[in-house]
Specification:
The protein is an alpha+beta fold. The chain contains 14 helices and eight strands. It holds the Pfam family Tmp39.
Length: 465
């Protein structure tokens, strides 16, 4: 008897030989059986697999190592970030409390009306903007004095000392601000802490340091006896070139978690700088003080964009983005397709298989086509699709951030040329100095990674065809 598959009438080799015999009776029988299979099997879907050719072997992606592009150390970055915060806040105070000291009948001998500045608010802003710098300095000193095995212990001690030192000062300033501006002012003082808990969680490490430790990564390895063992390594974020689909998805989930944590910290810290350096000085001003609302708002926007690009360039260095890029090449992506031909050949997606480029599979009653050279992603998984789209070519994201920084400095230069008051000139120049340093580092990184990933894409295209 002939053996048929319920998915598309797949014949065995022996029956294929008989199916080539002349005559129409066997063909009529096949057509009758096909109609019967369509009537009773897969009643909810009218698309079925035809005689599917053998799946070709999946070619592993080719990686080109990045050249040595060492990012700035945490200490140098914290100094740059602190300089940006202080310059932004100084520029805002200049915009608010400028004086007309040059007039012959002016009673003020200073460029600013210092007697109008609330020094309790100023102290709160300085503490919140510089909270990471003393922690970083103390950690650098402890790294030189103690072995690496003691790092968790002295890091905890540094956090305790920092909190014990800063909290009493903040509470004292809060108390005096409430006495001066009333109880409703406490809402604006504790608002950043509420946002921190909502975004980062109740974790002082993420509040006092920019980057938290990477999440634990679990990889499955086979021992000599064939059994699997879990190996956890939370010391670094790295990539393991594996052709196991389950291992690739586990690695991608770990990298997605770490990427989301870093992204939250970038957004939160950028918000915190804008809030304490530009907004609070404006909110806690005397009602009789007149200032240019348009200019101080523009100063806040420029400060936010400058902080955002600075934090992104540090939290997502080229080596880190390359790890995510390599994982994305192994992950691949599935594109949902609509095919009118009901006899198009397809396979049933299985979570343990790697799929080659162009493979057509069925998952959850939908057809998907593989786009990557190697595909371990789950069809219809939006997180996997976003991960592949974002890190298939990291030079695209680097180009967007680089162009954003370039447009920022261009806009600041144009406004500087059109400015005519001394406070406008000084406040905008303070931002330009820090932003130009950030642009220099981003330009060097962008053109290097652009060339590397262009060559890698050409290499992958060559081997995949």
């Amino acid at each position: 008897m002939s053996t048929y598959s319920l998915k598309g009438l797949k014949l065995t080799p022996q029956n294929r030989k008989h199916s080539k015999m002349p005559g129409g009776r066997r063909n009529a029988k096949s057509n009758s059986f096909k109609h019967h299979a369509h009537a009773h099997s897969h009643a909810s879907d009218d698309r079925h697999a035809c005689d599917l050719p053998a799946q070709p072997q999946v070619v592993p992606p080719k990686h080109i190592p990045l050249p040595d592009l060492p990012p700035s150390s945490d200490l140098y970055f914290e100094i740059d970030a602190f300089a940006l915060c202080i310059f932004a806040m100084a520029g805002q105070y200049i915009n608010l409390y400028r004086s007309v000291f040059w007039l012959p009948y002016s009673n003020n001998e200073h460029a600013l009306n210092f007697y109008l500045i609330d020094y309790y608010i100023l102290t709160i802003n300085v503490i919140m903007l510089s909270r990471r710098l003393p922690v970083c300095i103390l950690k650098q000193i402890c790294n030189l004095c103690f072995p690496v095995s003691y790092q968790p212990t002295y890091t905890l001690c540094i956090h305790i000392v920092t909190i014990v030192s800063l909290v009493p000062v903040l509470l004292f300033c809060f108390y005096n601000v409430i006495l001066e501006y009333g109880i409703p002012s406490i809402i604006f003082l504790i608002y950043p802490f509420v946002v921190s808990i909502v975004v980062l969680g109740a974790n002082t490490t993420k509040f006092l340091e920019l980057k938290s430790a990477p999440p634990e990564r679990t990889t499955v390895t086979k021992s000599k006896g064939g059994s699997s063992a879990n190996i956890k390594n939370s010391s670094t974020v790295n990539h393991v070139c594996s052709m196991s689909a389950e291992t690739v998805r586990e690695e991608v989930e770990m990298l997605r978690t770490d990427f989301n944590n870093r992204w939250k910290q970038v957004l939160f810290n950028s918000f915190l700088v804008v809030y304490h350096a530009t907004f609070l000085p404006c909110y806690f001003t005397q009602s009789t003080l007149h200032y240019d609302v348009h200019w101080v708002t523009q100063h806040g926007v420029f400060t936010g964009i400058g902080c955002f690009t600075l934090y992104v360039s540090h939290c997502f260095p080229p080596k880190y983005c390359d790890v995510l890029h390599r994982a994305a090449l192994h992950l691949g992506r599935w594109q949902r397709v609509e095919i009118k031909n009901v006899y198009v050949p397809y396979s049933t997606w299985t979570e343990s298989a790697m799929w080659n480029q162009g493979a057509l599979v069925k998952h959850s009653k939908e057809l998907f086509k593989a786009e990557g050279i190697a595909n371990a992603a789950e069809p219809g998984h939006s997180g996997h699709s976003r991960f592949y789209s974002l890190f298939k070519d990291p030079s695209t994201a680097a180009k967007v951030i680089w162009l954003l920084q370039l447009l920022l400095i261009t806009a600041e230069m144009l406004i500087l040329v059109q400015s005519h008051t001394w406070n406008d000139l000084i406040s905008i120049q303070l931002l330009i100095m820090v932003n130009c340093k950030t642009l220099y580092g981003m330009t060097k990184v962008y053109f290097v990674v652009k060339k590397i990933y262009y060559e890698e894409n050409a290499l992958i295209t060559k081997f995949s065809h």
